[in-house]
Amino acid sequence: MAGRARTTSAATALSRRPQLSEDVANHVRHLVMSGEVRPGDYIRLNETAAELGVRVTPVREVY
């Protein structure tokens, strides 16, 4: 039973954590709303991923 309880609690913890792409979207949204990124500016996937310390895939999911 102890193994089952651990698996259930791990699944619960994972379901509570927001998707990484949601975190990235919040970051990009903040850049736009704060004026750091202006209309027409190009947001580079690699640079954004490096800033956040994530791979490019979650950044790509935002777009």
> Over all CA atoms, what is the radius of gyration?
16 Å
Strand content: under 5%
**Helix/strand order:** HHHH
User: Total helix count?
Assistant: 4
Helix content: over 70%
Low-confidence stretches: none
Mean pLDDT: 80
The main sheet comes to:
none
N-to-C CA distance? 43 Å
Structural category is mainly alpha
Question: How many beta-strand elements?
Answer: 0
Q: What overall geometry do the principal axes of the alpha carbons give?
A: globular
Features of the shown structure:
globular, mainly alpha, 63 residues, 4 helices, 71% helix
Account of the protein in words:
- With 63 residues, this protein is mainly alpha-helical.
- Helices cover 71% and strands 0% of the residues.
- It is built from four helices and no strands.
- It has helices spanning 2-16, 20-34, 45-52, 56-62.
- The radius of gyration is 16 Å and the shape is globular.
